[in-house]
Amino acid sequence: MNPLPVRRALGTLLLAGLLAAILAAPAHATPGRPGTPPAADLGWAGPGAPPVGSDGRVGAARTDVLGVAGAGPYRFGARLDQLTAAGLVDWTAPVCGTVVDAGATGEWAGVILLTFQDGRLVGIGTATAPPRSPAGAAVGMSFADLEAIYGPRGASIDDDAGTATAYLVRLGSRVELFTGHPIRPGVGYFQVGPASFVERAFRQGRVC
Q: Which of 11, 62, 118, 126 sits most deeply, having the most CB atoms within 10 A of its CB?
């Protein structure tokens, strides 16, 4: 198996963005700031949402789990403008069309890359471990490890051009997608989000 990154054309941008976030992140950053709106106002209250204190502010994120609901306070469908106002977005970089990549803050800075389409969160990816998937899969594992973890729940897929392979786990309308590393065997990038964005982007080799 010779997987390639999910967004081959954006591989350099992804790695550069993650490195920039790592170097720029303050040593004791927190994911919120004074004036952070309650979780319900950001559209990610409910089961799996981050803890909210008595003052209505979002608690610290855990950076060990990345799943199809999202990561910490970063929930799929959340609006870029509201996350930015809450102090949860560090930087943004236009990709194409209405797609924008962004960096997280606090404990997630340098750990995940956020992708928005039409102002809504549609993709979260990482080149580090942790985080792991809820099943325990992570960057650095072999693809044989993924097969052992997921069994019949996952499968290898090819892109439409037949030039890249990835490991896909489908969970309802959302997916976990594991792609390769450019210089070593095994998983180099782990991404989650709606199949209509994440899986389609891999199969088509582009996000727009």
A: 126
Instruction: Kindly tell me if the per-residue pLDDT of 19 is higher than 60.
Output: no
Q: Note the pLDDT tens digit of each residue in 144-156.
A: 999 999 999 999 9
Task: Give the amino acid at 70.
Answer: G
Name the pLDDT band for 62 (thresholds 50, 70, 90): low
Sheet holding 113-117, edge to edge: 89-96, 99-104, 113-117, 120-126, 187-194, 174-180, 165-171, 154-158
Measured between alpha carbons, how far apart are the two ends of the chain, in Å? 27
Cα–Cα distance between 8 and 13 in angstroms, integer?
A: 10
Question: Residue 133 is which amino acid?
Answer: S
* Distance in angstroms (rounded) separating the CA atoms of residues 80 and 121: 7
* Burial class of residue 177 (count of CB atoms within 10 Å of its CB; 0-12, 13-18, 19+): buried
- pLDDT of residue 29 exceeding 50, the answer is no
Distance CA 112, CA 131 (A): 9
For 68, phi and psi rounded to 5 degrees?
A: -75, -5
DSSP state of 5: -
Q: What are phi and psi of 191, to 5 degrees?
A: -130, 145
Q: pLDDT band at residue 59, thresholds of 50, 70 and 90? A: very low
DSSP string, 108-122: GTTT-EEEEETTEEE
pTM of the model: 0.72
